[in-house]
Design brief:
This is Expansin-like EG45 domain-containing protein. This protein has about 160 residues and is of the alpha/beta class. The chain contains four helices and six strands.
């Protein structure tokens, strides 16, 4: 049984996650079947590419295969990603959020960023691949190194 102090600490921790934006769920994005898969606490390896404008939201139509529009605005804020079959899940993965990060090349910061599945990648280059909006790809870089990271084109990353 929890003491009132333990309950208070748990509530403060939960509120800190919500306010800081470091926690992705519960889903903030319609439509309904937003499922963030439970992959566990281990980081999984993936490949990352990027598309669209270097500091853009990704697709030319400012939407994507999930049917969202204006992905450059909240709640997506240009942090969209195309994903391949194991993540996209025939559209059931639309709106799911994932923490991503990279450690290599040297321009990578190693700090996690949150991206949202907004589109399908039909030509994967790895078992897990994120084709990120230019803005989302750049968030994995050290400050001021975003353009250098984008020039790497395809990178190893974790999610």
């Amino acid at each position: 049984m929890w003491s009132s102090m333990q309950a208070h600490v748990a509530m403060v921790v939960a509120l800190a996650f919500l306010v800081s934006g470091d926690w992705c769920g519960p889903p903030k994005v319609p439509p309904g079947k937003n499922i963030t898969a439970t992959y566990g606490s281990d980081w999984l390896d993936a490949k990352a590419t990027w598309y669209g404008k270097p500091t853009g939201a990704g697709p030319d139509d400012n939407g994507g295969g999930c049917g969202y529009k204006d992905v450059n605005k909240p709640p997506f804020n240009s942090m969209g990603a195309c994903s391949n079959i194991p993540i996209f899940k025939d559209g059931l993965g639309c709106g799911s959020c994932f923490e991503i990060k990279c450690d290599k090349p040297a321009e990578c910061s190693g700090k996690p960023a949150v991206v949202y599945i907004t589109d399908m990648n039909y030509e994967p280059i790895a078992a897990y691949q994120f084709d990120l909006a230019g803005t989302a790809f750049g968030t994995m870089a050290k400050k001021g190194e975003e353009e250098k990271l984008r020039k790497a084109s395809i990178i190893d990353m974790q999610f």
